[in-house]
Amino acid sequence: MSVNDAVDDVACIVVHHNSPATLVGTLEALCASGVPRAQILVVDNSSETPSTASLVAEGFSVLYTSNRGYAAAVNDGLAHLNAKDFARPFTLISTHESLAAPDAVRALRDELLADPSIAVAGPTLLNADLDMQIWSVGGRLTPLLKLPRHHVNAGARMQEPVVDREWLDGAFTMYRTADLEAFRLDEVYFLYFEETDLHTRLRRAGRRVVWVPRARVSQRSSGIPSRLLGRNLLVFHSKLFSLTRGRMAVAFELGRSLARALLTKRGRWAAFPEIARGWRQGERMTAVADSAEPSVSAGRALG
Questions:
Q1: How is residue 37 annotated by DSSP?
Q2: Range of 267's domain?
Q3: pLDDT of 282-294, one tens digit each?
Q4: Total domain count for the chain?
């Protein structure tokens, strides 16, 4: 099959927030990967004046929503695809700055086709800010504190077979649509940890989460902000493990940030109070009894 053949069984949701310059490259790369323009939905939750209306004339669809976070944008997009009868068996979720290699989409789709037990597949992620060094090949949770950590595989070879992971980075992931609809991303996190949460739940349900080495995608990565680390790590644990373990995990990250600042000079002194601030926010969030499912907003659609 030629890389120029259309990938008709994949719909794509691109989450866009205030970055029209990078969005252009993302859309061009998806089209070059074989995704038809009619199957690409841009969910725009930008705070600035919308700059994406012109995309409709180019054959893309655009959905405008309020900025309720990354998971909410994906959930809104999925609901829109269903409402417009644009849903496909597989759904690709991408940030507004991911650049897929020409065969990346097809490589992920082929693995999902080959094994019905796979719920989500992700690529080898390269850091565009660090001379295209590998920055993610999926992650694991540490045995005791269940801290999310990346697997180290700087020399990942493209011919390696797929590898099961505990979680994948959410920058570029392809889901079996039925699994994504059944489990959904949790909007409580707003940003970061939503994919770790979802992939943990998928694995608990017996579904596979896999890294596909030969699929290559680049994007910029600066890591999680310290406040969100403290807040979302506690929320993640209180939801899927225990609040006590969550407090231990955040305390560990506090100590780690202090040690890095004192001993290695690699850390920033500002990280310590920011993690602590996030911890306090997480405590307030977990104290609120709210078992309601995330709501889906219809948004305002173009295309």
A1: G
A2: 226-287
A3: 999 998 844 444 4
A4: 2
